[in-house]
Specification:
The protein contains three helices and nine strands. It is an alpha+beta fold. The strands form three sheets. It has a four-stranded antiparallel β-sheet with strand order 4-1-7-8. The chain has a three-stranded antiparallel β-sheet with strand order 5-6-9. It is globular.
Length: 158
């Protein structure tokens, strides 16, 4: 009987910690445009808000929030944006994707919704990316805080 009580207390403590200890995490995904001549199961069509653009993108992202080293609010003429600085892997991937996909789009999702479609005109090899998209200043602030928190947590684990 004592074992069951101990197990129950451990379960309650673990679930309580997971419910209240972690803040909501932002997801960030970069998808590259692919040819619509591929079979349907290899791509998905995405309608990007505010642009009226519909793009066929790969089902798997090339970059995620795990590739972000740091983020900060960056003011542009169009309103608040997010300046992303990428980890080494993210920098290499962004360089490779922008080299290989000139003349195509890179579609960015924030928390599961498309917020930007960036037309690739040149190679990006600086490890930084300014994300201008369909989000409010408050959404940008929350995303920056969450991305930095996640990066800090990953770096502490190393």
């Amino acid at each position: 009987m004592q074992t069951y009580k101990t197990l129950l207390v451990c379960c309650l403590l673990a679930s309580g910690c997971s419910m209240f200890g972690e803040k909501e995490q932002t997801t960030l995904r970069f998808y590259e445009q692919v040819s619509s001549s591929l079979p349907n199961k290899l791509y998905r069509e995405v309608a990007v808000p505010k642009t009226g653009l519909t793009v066929q993108v790969d089902r798997f992202p090339v970059l995620t929030e795990r590739d972000v080293a740091s983020a900060e609010i960056y003011q542009t003429a169009g309103g608040p944006s997010i300046l992303l600085r990428l980890e080494i892997h993210g920098n290499i991937m962004l360089d490779e994707v922008t080299t290989r996909n000139r003349g195509r789009y890179l579609v960015v999702f924030l928390d599961g919704r498309p917020v930007a479609a960036w037309f690739i005109e040149k190679r990006l090899n600086t490890g930084s990316f300014i994300l201008e998209g369909d989000f409010t200043g408050e959404e940008a602030k929350k995303a920056v805080e969450s991305l930095n928190r996640q990066s800090k947590k990953r770096n502490a684990e190393w």
